[in-house]
């Protein structure tokens, strides 16, 4: 979704999304599924190459302060944020999010871009639920501390530069709202 995306990064990202859609739940259910693990390893590599050639956006920018202040692993905090940030960002790049939904298997080729983008958000919520991705509250983060630090985290997220690559460049207040949405 980066504003710096290009055909090279898009191809790798969409292949990674397609592979993740077919294999992530399998790996989660059975870590001994070597075929699925190999596919996820390839997808992780493709995704890494994709964002190394296009930069990251809002999810990563918001994730960094969560890790710094609350010692949440970066991948986990990304997962916590992913559905809410996608819902926030999708209206500004509906066709790109629709492509991701189709690659993930969450939408059909014939679905409108708006419907496909909505289905992507729902698929991400479902995926987080199926993989037991906790909310910050369920992860044990104190509510008062979360909301006390949210203004600072929002400023830090914006200062990271990553949100400037997002389809919608958020304000500090919008980032704070996203942090509030994901807490419980």
The shape is globular
How does the major sheet shape up? none
Order of helices and strands: HHHHHHHH
Structural class: mainly alpha
Residue share in β-strands: under 5%
Helix content: over 70%
- Measured on Cα atoms, how large is the radius of gyration? 16 Å
Question: How would you state the average pLDDT, rounded?
Answer: 98
Uncertain segments: none
Overall strand count? 0
Euclidean distance between termini CA atoms: 26 Å
Total of helices? 8
Tags for this entry?
184 residues; 8 helices; mainly alpha
Concise synopsis of the structure shown:
With 184 residues, the chain is mainly alpha-helical. It is built from 8 helices and no strands.
Topology:
Blueprint (H helix, E strand, L loop, with lengths): L6 H23 L4 H19 L5 H13 L3 H16 L4 H11 L8 H18 L12 H17 L12 H12 L1
Helix pairs in contact: 1-2, 1-5, 3-4, 3-7, 4-6, 4-8, 5-6, 7-8
């Amino acid at each position: 979704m980066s504003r710096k995306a290009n055909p090279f990064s898009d191809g790798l990202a969409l292949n990674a999304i397609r592979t993740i859609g077919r294999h992530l739940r399998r790996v989660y259910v059975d870590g001994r599924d070597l075929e699925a693990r190999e596919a996820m390893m390839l997808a992780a590599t493709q995704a890494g190459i994709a964002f190394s050639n296009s930069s990251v956006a809002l999810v990563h920018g918001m994730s960094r302060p969560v890790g710094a202040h609350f010692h949440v692993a970066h991948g986990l905090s990304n997962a916590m944020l992913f559905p809410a940030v996608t819902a926030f960002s999708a209206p500004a790049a509906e066709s790109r999010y629709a492509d991701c939904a189709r690659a993930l298997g969450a939408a059909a080729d014939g679905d409108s871009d708006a419907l496909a983008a909505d289905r992507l958000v729902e698929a991400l919520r479902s995926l987080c639920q199926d993989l037991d991705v906790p909310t910050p509250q369920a992860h044990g983060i104190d509510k008062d501390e979360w909301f006390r630090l949210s203004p600072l985290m929002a400023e830090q997220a914006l200062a990271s530069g990553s949100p400037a690559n997002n389809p919608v460049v958020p304000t500090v207040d919008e980032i704070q709202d996203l942090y509030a949405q994901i807490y419980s």
